[in-house]
Design goal:
alpha/beta; nine-stranded parallel beta sheet
Length: about 325
């Protein structure tokens, strides 16, 4: 006997926990939109373990109109920022409405959000009320001529539950937001502007940091990392004068499109995994960086043979 299940809502019969997990993979706008499906779905999103606020579409939309529509260009920049800030203000309301703690949260915002205090309020709310474990903050710059430093209070990233932090597009004038940041285990800085001293202080403040990734960061000249707890270090797209790494417990090191013009000192006797890619995809044996890498790999048991094998394949 065949059973006609046409029109039967199979998904809504799933347990709340499973529905929340499904919704956690959606953007926040898509998550909230599910509440109109039926009474059963109305509050499911409020118990999602992940919230992803992607307001990037909003900033691009406003900039496109600003450049395309002459009447809209009569708006001064302050009014444009005000329009976007009002539209992105729903982020605070959504977090306040959300009912459970968060495993992860990602937020896109504009640079003006530092001046308005929005970023500070969001971080404090996520720390104190949502006990967030993984946080990703992406700052979008509306106009090249506008620069707003990261004016966040000292120790803002200290939170006993926060273990993973990613910052993208930030301008760190100092390391004060990372004061007493013994909670962080993983730190990813992507397209962040900071100087050598600030990076050193950030690493010093994050006393239990195990995983550090620096990608396309600007303002750095010399990277000096002397840390006994670090286990994984990934450097990507950096133009440097010098690299000085001394990490006794480091097991993974990746140098991807990293230019080092003056010196390279690497002391990582526990290294197990090494990855390297030059800008052109080829590493010539006659180059200085080749000899530097070979020199430090000779001190890392089991790595030299596999690296030389890689060189023979790409040349």
């Amino acid at each position: 006997m065949e059973m006609n299940i046409e029109g039967v809502d199979q998904i809504s019969s799933l347990p709340d926990a499973l529905l929340s997990r499904i919704i956690s993979h959606l953007s926040i706008s898509e998550s909230i939109r599910t509440s109109i499906l039926s009474r059963r779905w109305k509050n499911i999103w409020k118990s999602s373990s992940c919230l992803h606020f992607d307001t990037n579409f909003l900033t691009k939309f406003c900039i496109d109109i600003y450049h395309r529509d002459a009447s809209f260009r009569d708006y001064d920049r302050k009014r444009l920022y005000d329009e976007i800030s009002r539209a992105t203000g729903f982020v605070e309301r959504v977090i306040d409405t959300h009912e459970t703690k968060l495993v992860s949260c990602s937020i896109y915002h504009i640079e003006d959000s530092f001046k308005s205090g929005l970023v500070e309020r969001l971080i404090k709310n996520l720390k104190e009320k949502k006990l967030v474990e993984e946080l990703s903050l992406v700052c979008e710059q509306l106009f090249v001529s506008d620069t707003f430093p990261c004016n966040l209070p000292p120790g803002i990233f200290f939170c006993r539950t926060l273990h993973v932090l990613e910052l993208k597009g930030y301008r760190l004038k100092d390391a004060s937001p990372f004061e007493s940041c013994c909670n962080l285990v993983t730190l990813r800085l992507n397209s962040v502007n900071l100087d050598d001293k600030t990076l050193s202080r950030v690493i010093f403040n994050c006393t239990f940091l195990e995983d550090l990734c620096l990608c396309s960061c600007t303002g750095l000249k010399k990277i000096e990392i002397h840390d006994k707890n670090l286990k994984s270090l990934k450097l990507n797209g950096l133009d440097l004068e010098g690299i000085d790494i001394e990490a006794m417990g480091l097991s993974t090191l990746v140098l991807n499109s990293v230019s080092c013009s003056v010196y390279m000192k690497i002391n990582t006797p526990s290294l197990v995994e090494f990855g390297f890619c030059s800008d052109g995809g080829r590493l010539q044996k006659s180059t200085q960086i080749y000899s530097r890498i070979i020199d430090f790999l000779e001190r890392c048991c089991g790595l030299l043979v596999s690296f030389l094998g890689l060189i023979s394949l790409i040349n």
